[in-house]
Fold these 4 entries.
Entry 1:
Amino acid sequence: MHGVRRTLWEQQVKSTGIPFSTVEIPKETSIEVYAKKMSEKVEQLRNDGITMSAFGDIHLEDLRTYRETQLKKLAVQTCFPLWKKD
Protein backbone atom coordinates (compact mmCIF):
# COMPACT_ATOMS: atom_id res chain seq x y z
CA MET A 1 0.00 0.00 0.00
CA HIS A 2 1.27 3.47 -0.87
CA GLY A 3 4.43 2.02 -2.40
CA VAL A 4 5.99 1.00 0.92
CA ARG A 5 7.80 -2.32 0.81
CA ARG A 6 6.11 -4.92 2.97
CA THR A 7 9.39 -5.88 4.61
CA LEU A 8 9.89 -2.27 5.74
CA TRP A 9 6.50 -1.81 7.41
CA GLU A 10 6.72 -5.27 8.97
CA GLN A 11 10.08 -4.31 10.52
CA GLN A 12 8.61 -1.01 11.73
CA VAL A 13 5.56 -2.55 13.36
CA LYS A 14 7.55 -5.43 14.87
CA SER A 15 9.93 -2.91 16.44
CA THR A 16 7.03 -1.44 18.45
CA GLY A 17 6.32 -4.75 20.17
CA ILE A 18 2.61 -4.28 19.46
CA PRO A 19 0.85 -7.37 18.07
CA PHE A 20 -0.40 -6.96 14.52
CA SER A 21 -2.09 -8.92 11.79
CA THR A 22 -2.83 -8.32 8.14
CA VAL A 23 -5.68 -8.88 5.71
CA GLU A 24 -4.77 -9.94 2.21
CA ILE A 25 -6.92 -8.04 -0.29
CA PRO A 26 -6.65 -8.80 -4.02
CA LYS A 27 -5.06 -5.93 -5.96
CA GLU A 28 -8.09 -5.49 -8.22
CA THR A 29 -11.13 -5.96 -6.00
CA SER A 30 -14.62 -4.64 -5.41
CA ILE A 31 -15.75 -2.74 -2.34
CA GLU A 32 -17.95 -5.73 -1.50
CA VAL A 33 -14.98 -8.13 -1.44
CA TYR A 34 -12.95 -5.61 0.56
CA ALA A 35 -15.76 -5.14 3.10
CA LYS A 36 -16.28 -8.91 3.44
CA LYS A 37 -12.60 -9.68 4.01
CA MET A 38 -12.23 -6.84 6.49
CA SER A 39 -15.38 -7.83 8.39
CA GLU A 40 -14.20 -11.43 8.65
CA LYS A 41 -10.83 -10.34 10.03
CA VAL A 42 -12.35 -7.86 12.48
CA GLU A 43 -14.77 -10.53 13.73
CA GLN A 44 -11.81 -12.85 14.33
CA LEU A 45 -9.90 -10.15 16.19
CA ARG A 46 -12.95 -9.15 18.22
CA ASN A 47 -13.40 -12.78 19.25
CA ASP A 48 -9.78 -12.64 20.44
CA GLY A 49 -10.65 -9.66 22.66
CA ILE A 50 -9.68 -6.74 20.42
CA THR A 51 -12.01 -3.77 20.96
CA MET A 52 -10.20 -0.93 19.15
CA SER A 53 -8.45 -0.40 15.83
CA ALA A 54 -5.96 2.39 15.11
CA PHE A 55 -5.44 3.92 11.68
CA GLY A 56 -2.71 6.10 10.19
CA ASP A 57 -5.14 8.19 8.15
CA ILE A 58 -4.44 11.92 8.26
CA HIS A 59 -7.00 13.76 6.14
CA LEU A 60 -9.55 11.84 4.04
CA GLU A 61 -12.89 12.48 5.76
CA ASP A 62 -14.81 9.96 3.64
CA LEU A 63 -12.33 7.19 4.43
CA ARG A 64 -12.44 7.96 8.14
CA THR A 65 -16.25 7.95 8.09
CA TYR A 66 -16.26 4.64 6.21
CA ARG A 67 -13.92 3.02 8.74
CA GLU A 68 -15.91 4.35 11.69
CA THR A 69 -19.22 3.20 10.20
CA GLN A 70 -18.02 -0.29 9.33
CA LEU A 71 -16.31 -0.92 12.65
CA LYS A 72 -19.20 0.46 14.69
CA LYS A 73 -21.35 -2.32 13.17
CA LEU A 74 -18.84 -4.79 14.61
CA ALA A 75 -18.61 -3.11 18.05
CA VAL A 76 -15.00 -2.01 17.53
CA GLN A 77 -13.85 1.51 18.41
CA THR A 78 -11.62 3.49 16.07
CA CYS A 79 -8.57 5.61 16.85
CA PHE A 80 -6.89 8.09 14.49
CA PRO A 81 -3.78 9.34 16.33
CA LEU A 82 -2.29 11.11 13.29
CA TRP A 83 -5.50 12.82 12.17
CA LYS A 84 -4.92 16.34 10.77
CA LYS A 85 -1.22 16.22 11.66
CA ASP A 86 1.55 17.13 9.24
Note: Residues 39 and 70 are 8 Å apart (CA to CA).
Entry 2:
Amino acid sequence: KYFKIYKRYASYVISGKYGNGTERKNKLVKLNIDYNYCQSIVNDIINNKSLESTKASAKVKYSKIANEIISGKYGNGATRFTNLKNANIDYSYAQMLVNNMMKG
Protein backbone atom coordinates (compact mmCIF):
# COMPACT_ATOMS: atom_id res chain seq x y z
CA LYS A 1 0.00 0.00 0.00
CA TYR A 2 2.66 2.53 1.02
CA PHE A 3 4.83 1.69 -1.97
CA LYS A 4 1.92 2.56 -4.27
CA ILE A 5 1.47 5.87 -2.47
CA TYR A 6 5.15 6.70 -2.82
CA LYS A 7 5.15 5.62 -6.45
CA ARG A 8 2.31 8.11 -7.04
CA TYR A 9 4.27 10.89 -5.29
CA ALA A 10 7.32 9.97 -7.36
CA SER A 11 5.28 10.43 -10.52
CA TYR A 12 4.19 13.85 -9.24
CA VAL A 13 7.83 14.75 -8.58
CA ILE A 14 8.82 13.66 -12.09
CA SER A 15 6.01 15.78 -13.55
CA GLY A 16 7.40 18.81 -11.67
CA LYS A 17 4.48 19.24 -9.27
CA TYR A 18 6.75 19.79 -6.25
CA GLY A 19 9.56 21.77 -7.88
CA ASN A 20 13.23 20.91 -7.50
CA GLY A 21 15.91 20.73 -4.84
CA THR A 22 15.11 22.28 -1.48
CA GLU A 23 11.67 23.39 -2.61
CA ARG A 24 10.76 19.78 -3.47
CA LYS A 25 12.16 18.43 -0.23
CA ASN A 26 10.31 21.02 1.88
CA LYS A 27 6.99 20.37 0.14
CA LEU A 28 7.26 16.59 0.52
CA VAL A 29 8.38 16.78 4.16
CA LYS A 30 5.47 19.13 4.90
CA LEU A 31 3.19 16.37 3.56
CA ASN A 32 4.96 13.91 5.91
CA ILE A 33 6.47 12.08 2.94
CA ASP A 34 9.85 10.39 3.43
CA TYR A 35 11.81 12.54 0.99
CA ASN A 36 14.75 10.15 0.63
CA TYR A 37 12.53 7.16 -0.10
CA CYS A 38 10.42 9.12 -2.58
CA GLN A 39 13.54 10.47 -4.28
CA SER A 40 15.00 6.95 -4.53
CA ILE A 41 11.87 5.84 -6.39
CA VAL A 42 12.15 8.89 -8.67
CA ASN A 43 15.79 8.04 -9.38
CA ASP A 44 14.98 4.40 -10.06
CA ILE A 45 12.16 5.32 -12.44
CA ILE A 46 14.38 7.78 -14.29
CA ASN A 47 17.23 5.27 -14.42
CA ASN A 48 14.85 2.45 -15.48
CA LYS A 49 15.73 0.34 -12.45
CA SER A 50 13.40 -2.28 -11.09
CA LEU A 51 10.74 -0.83 -8.81
CA GLU A 52 10.59 -4.20 -7.07
CA SER A 53 14.23 -3.74 -6.11
CA THR A 54 13.40 -0.30 -4.70
CA LYS A 55 10.44 -1.73 -2.82
CA ALA A 56 12.61 -4.47 -1.30
CA SER A 57 15.28 -2.02 -0.14
CA ALA A 58 12.62 0.20 1.45
CA LYS A 59 11.22 -2.79 3.31
CA VAL A 60 14.67 -3.52 4.75
CA LYS A 61 15.15 0.16 5.69
CA TYR A 62 11.82 0.40 7.47
CA SER A 63 12.27 -2.96 9.21
CA LYS A 64 15.47 -1.57 10.71
CA ILE A 65 13.68 1.62 11.74
CA ALA A 66 10.86 -0.41 13.33
CA ASN A 67 13.41 -2.34 15.39
CA GLU A 68 15.00 0.95 16.45
CA ILE A 69 11.58 2.25 17.51
CA ILE A 70 10.95 -0.89 19.56
CA SER A 71 14.34 -0.46 21.24
CA GLY A 72 13.34 3.07 22.27
CA LYS A 73 15.59 5.09 19.96
CA TYR A 74 12.82 7.51 18.92
CA GLY A 75 10.94 7.79 22.23
CA ASN A 76 7.19 7.33 22.69
CA GLY A 77 3.97 9.12 21.78
CA ALA A 78 4.30 12.68 20.52
CA THR A 79 8.07 12.58 21.04
CA ARG A 80 8.31 9.57 18.72
CA PHE A 81 6.18 11.29 16.09
CA THR A 82 8.34 14.43 16.23
CA ASN A 83 11.62 12.52 16.18
CA LEU A 84 10.56 10.42 13.20
CA LYS A 85 9.26 13.46 11.33
CA ASN A 86 12.54 15.31 12.02
CA ALA A 87 14.42 12.27 10.68
CA ASN A 88 12.21 12.43 7.55
CA ILE A 89 10.72 9.01 8.28
CA ASP A 90 7.12 8.13 7.40
CA TYR A 91 5.61 7.81 10.88
CA SER A 92 2.46 5.98 9.78
CA TYR A 93 4.31 3.29 7.88
CA ALA A 94 6.98 2.82 10.55
CA GLN A 95 4.36 2.63 13.30
CA MET A 96 2.31 0.12 11.32
CA LEU A 97 5.40 -2.11 11.07
CA VAL A 98 6.05 -1.75 14.81
CA ASN A 99 2.44 -2.69 15.58
CA ASN A 100 2.65 -5.74 13.31
CA MET A 101 5.97 -6.82 14.82
CA MET A 102 4.61 -6.48 18.35
CA LYS A 103 1.59 -8.65 17.49
CA GLY A 104 4.00 -11.44 16.64
Note: The two ends are 21 Å apart (CA to CA).
Entry 3:
Amino acid sequence: TEYVVIAGNRFSGSSAPMNIRGCASNLCGGEASSPPLRHVLIEGNTATLMPGTGTGREFVQMEGSDWTVRGNDLRAYPSRNVAQSAPAVGSSGFGAHEVYGNDLGGRAATCGGGGFVRCE
Protein backbone atom coordinates (compact mmCIF):
# COMPACT_ATOMS: atom_id res chain seq x y z
CA THR A 1 0.00 0.00 0.00
CA GLU A 2 3.01 2.30 -0.16
CA TYR A 3 5.31 3.40 -2.98
CA VAL A 4 3.03 2.43 -5.84
CA VAL A 5 3.87 3.25 -9.48
CA ILE A 6 1.29 3.11 -12.27
CA ALA A 7 3.13 3.96 -15.47
CA GLY A 8 3.08 3.34 -19.20
CA ASN A 9 -0.48 2.03 -19.44
CA ARG A 10 -3.17 2.69 -22.02
CA PHE A 11 -6.65 3.09 -20.56
CA SER A 12 -9.46 3.00 -23.11
CA GLY A 13 -13.19 2.66 -22.84
CA SER A 14 -16.16 2.44 -25.14
CA SER A 15 -19.14 3.44 -23.02
CA ALA A 16 -17.99 4.56 -19.59
CA PRO A 17 -15.20 6.64 -18.17
CA MET A 18 -12.29 4.83 -16.65
CA ASN A 19 -10.87 5.75 -13.30
CA ILE A 20 -7.78 4.92 -11.26
CA ARG A 21 -8.76 4.62 -7.60
CA GLY A 22 -6.84 4.47 -4.37
CA CYS A 23 -8.60 1.38 -3.11
CA ALA A 24 -10.98 -1.33 -4.19
CA SER A 25 -14.12 -0.03 -2.53
CA ASN A 26 -15.68 3.00 -0.86
CA LEU A 27 -14.45 1.51 2.40
CA CYS A 28 -10.91 2.61 1.64
CA GLY A 29 -9.02 2.45 4.91
CA GLY A 30 -12.12 1.27 6.75
CA GLU A 31 -11.04 -2.35 6.64
CA ALA A 32 -7.70 -3.91 7.47
CA SER A 33 -7.67 -5.52 4.02
CA SER A 34 -8.18 -2.20 2.20
CA PRO A 35 -5.76 0.40 3.54
CA PRO A 36 -5.39 3.67 1.63
CA LEU A 37 -2.48 4.01 -0.79
CA ARG A 38 0.39 6.35 0.05
CA HIS A 39 3.27 7.66 -2.05
CA VAL A 40 1.69 6.93 -5.43
CA LEU A 41 3.14 7.98 -8.81
CA ILE A 42 0.89 7.92 -11.88
CA GLU A 43 3.00 8.81 -14.91
CA GLY A 44 3.22 8.25 -18.66
CA ASN A 45 -0.24 6.76 -19.11
CA THR A 46 -2.67 7.43 -21.96
CA ALA A 47 -6.43 7.62 -21.49
CA THR A 48 -9.03 7.73 -24.26
CA LEU A 49 -12.76 7.38 -24.75
CA MET A 50 -14.50 6.68 -28.02
CA PRO A 51 -16.05 9.89 -29.40
CA GLY A 52 -19.58 10.52 -28.16
CA THR A 53 -19.56 7.74 -25.56
CA GLY A 54 -19.39 9.70 -22.34
CA THR A 55 -18.41 12.91 -20.68
CA GLY A 56 -15.78 11.40 -18.44
CA ARG A 57 -15.07 12.11 -14.83
CA GLU A 58 -11.81 12.42 -12.96
CA PHE A 59 -8.91 10.41 -14.35
CA VAL A 60 -7.70 9.60 -10.81
CA GLN A 61 -9.67 9.22 -7.57
CA MET A 62 -7.17 9.74 -4.76
CA GLU A 63 -7.87 8.15 -1.40
CA GLY A 64 -4.78 8.22 0.73
CA SER A 65 -1.85 10.61 0.76
CA ASP A 66 1.10 11.84 -1.25
CA TRP A 67 -0.06 11.17 -4.81
CA THR A 68 1.69 12.58 -7.89
CA VAL A 69 -0.03 12.56 -11.30
CA ARG A 70 2.26 13.84 -14.05
CA GLY A 71 3.15 13.35 -17.69
CA ASN A 72 -0.04 11.56 -18.73
CA ASP A 73 -1.57 11.96 -22.18
CA LEU A 74 -5.18 12.98 -21.57
CA ARG A 75 -5.79 14.76 -24.89
CA ALA A 76 -8.52 12.27 -25.86
CA TYR A 77 -9.98 12.12 -22.36
CA PRO A 78 -13.17 14.22 -22.26
CA SER A 79 -12.89 15.61 -18.72
CA ARG A 80 -10.66 18.44 -17.53
CA ASN A 81 -10.91 17.09 -13.98
CA VAL A 82 -7.65 15.19 -13.72
CA ALA A 83 -7.95 14.25 -10.04
CA GLN A 84 -10.47 14.14 -7.23
CA SER A 85 -9.36 13.72 -3.63
CA ALA A 86 -11.27 12.32 -0.67
CA PRO A 87 -9.99 11.36 2.75
CA ALA A 88 -9.93 7.64 3.45
CA VAL A 89 -12.55 6.23 5.79
CA GLY A 90 -11.42 6.79 9.36
CA SER A 91 -9.04 9.55 8.32
CA SER A 92 -9.58 13.27 8.63
CA GLY A 93 -6.68 14.14 6.38
CA PHE A 94 -5.82 14.59 2.77
CA GLY A 95 -2.20 14.80 1.83
CA ALA A 96 0.22 16.56 -0.43
CA HIS A 97 -1.22 15.71 -3.84
CA GLU A 98 0.56 17.07 -6.92
CA VAL A 99 -0.97 17.14 -10.42
CA TYR A 100 1.14 18.72 -13.15
CA GLY A 101 2.60 18.29 -16.62
CA ASN A 102 -0.30 16.30 -18.05
CA ASP A 103 -1.24 16.90 -21.69
CA LEU A 104 -4.90 17.85 -21.91
CA GLY A 105 -4.65 19.25 -25.43
CA GLY A 106 -4.61 22.88 -24.31
CA ARG A 107 -7.42 22.56 -21.74
CA ALA A 108 -6.71 23.74 -18.22
CA ALA A 109 -6.56 20.97 -15.62
CA THR A 110 -8.92 21.01 -12.66
CA CYS A 111 -8.77 19.08 -9.40
CA GLY A 112 -11.46 18.54 -6.78
CA GLY A 113 -11.42 17.84 -3.09
CA GLY A 114 -8.67 18.70 -0.65
CA GLY A 115 -5.00 18.18 -0.08
CA PHE A 116 -3.65 19.57 -3.36
CA VAL A 117 -0.39 21.44 -3.13
CA ARG A 118 -0.27 21.72 -6.92
CA CYS A 119 -2.84 21.35 -9.69
CA GLU A 120 -1.91 22.70 -13.11
Note: The chain has a mean pLDDT of 82.
Entry 4:
Amino acid sequence: PNPTSDLAQLQFEVSEAQRLTIRLHTMGGAFLDNIFDGTVEPGAIYQVDVDAGSLSSGLYQLRISGGAHSEVRKLLVTP
Protein backbone atom coordinates (compact mmCIF):
# COMPACT_ATOMS: atom_id res chain seq x y z
CA PRO A 1 0.00 0.00 0.00
CA ASN A 2 1.06 3.57 -0.61
CA PRO A 3 1.31 5.57 2.61
CA THR A 4 -0.57 8.84 2.91
CA SER A 5 -1.35 11.32 5.65
CA ASP A 6 -4.05 13.39 3.98
CA LEU A 7 -5.30 12.51 0.49
CA ALA A 8 -4.96 9.26 -1.42
CA GLN A 9 -5.97 8.74 -5.04
CA LEU A 10 -7.34 5.46 -6.34
CA GLN A 11 -7.27 4.89 -10.10
CA PHE A 12 -9.17 2.14 -11.89
CA GLU A 13 -10.81 1.17 -15.15
CA VAL A 14 -13.46 -1.41 -15.99
CA SER A 15 -14.02 -3.72 -18.95
CA GLU A 16 -17.82 -3.36 -18.99
CA ALA A 17 -20.45 -0.89 -17.84
CA GLN A 18 -21.52 -1.60 -14.28
CA ARG A 19 -22.47 -0.15 -10.95
CA LEU A 20 -19.38 0.09 -8.76
CA THR A 21 -18.99 0.76 -5.06
CA ILE A 22 -15.84 1.58 -3.11
CA ARG A 23 -16.11 1.41 0.66
CA LEU A 24 -13.57 2.17 3.36
CA HIS A 25 -13.26 -0.35 6.20
CA THR A 26 -10.96 -0.94 9.14
CA MET A 27 -8.75 -4.01 8.95
CA GLY A 28 -11.20 -5.63 11.36
CA GLY A 29 -13.99 -5.16 8.82
CA ALA A 30 -15.89 -2.25 10.39
CA PHE A 31 -17.46 0.03 7.76
CA LEU A 32 -16.21 3.64 7.90
CA ASP A 33 -17.26 5.46 4.73
CA ASN A 34 -18.76 5.09 1.27
CA ILE A 35 -16.06 6.48 -1.07
CA PHE A 36 -17.81 5.90 -4.42
CA ASP A 37 -21.16 4.52 -5.56
CA GLY A 38 -22.06 4.95 -9.20
CA THR A 39 -22.15 3.64 -12.72
CA VAL A 40 -18.87 3.39 -14.62
CA GLU A 41 -18.25 2.85 -18.32
CA PRO A 42 -15.48 0.97 -20.14
CA GLY A 43 -12.77 2.90 -21.93
CA ALA A 44 -12.29 5.51 -19.22
CA ILE A 45 -9.79 5.74 -16.40
CA TYR A 46 -11.47 6.81 -13.18
CA GLN A 47 -9.75 8.53 -10.28
CA VAL A 48 -11.33 8.68 -6.84
CA ASP A 49 -9.96 10.77 -3.98
CA VAL A 50 -9.89 9.24 -0.50
CA ASP A 51 -9.73 11.82 2.30
CA ALA A 52 -7.51 10.23 4.95
CA GLY A 53 -6.97 13.43 6.93
CA SER A 54 -9.52 12.49 9.59
CA LEU A 55 -8.34 8.89 9.96
CA SER A 56 -6.05 7.61 12.69
CA SER A 57 -2.67 6.23 11.65
CA GLY A 58 -2.93 2.61 10.59
CA LEU A 59 -3.91 0.21 7.85
CA TYR A 60 -7.35 0.30 6.20
CA GLN A 61 -9.18 -1.61 3.45
CA LEU A 62 -10.74 -0.16 0.32
CA ARG A 63 -13.33 -2.71 -0.82
CA ILE A 64 -14.18 -2.37 -4.51
CA SER A 65 -17.28 -4.22 -5.75
CA GLY A 66 -18.99 -4.23 -9.12
CA GLY A 67 -20.83 -6.87 -11.09
CA ALA A 68 -19.14 -10.22 -10.48
CA HIS A 69 -15.84 -8.56 -9.52
CA SER A 70 -14.65 -7.80 -6.02
CA GLU A 71 -11.24 -6.54 -4.91
CA VAL A 72 -9.63 -5.25 -1.73
CA ARG A 73 -6.82 -2.69 -1.72
CA LYS A 74 -4.96 -1.56 1.35
CA LEU A 75 -4.51 2.04 2.46
CA LEU A 76 -1.77 2.96 4.92
CA VAL A 77 -2.37 6.20 6.83
CA THR A 78 0.72 7.71 8.44
CA PRO A 79 1.03 10.57 10.96
Note: The first strand starts at residue 3 and ends at 4.
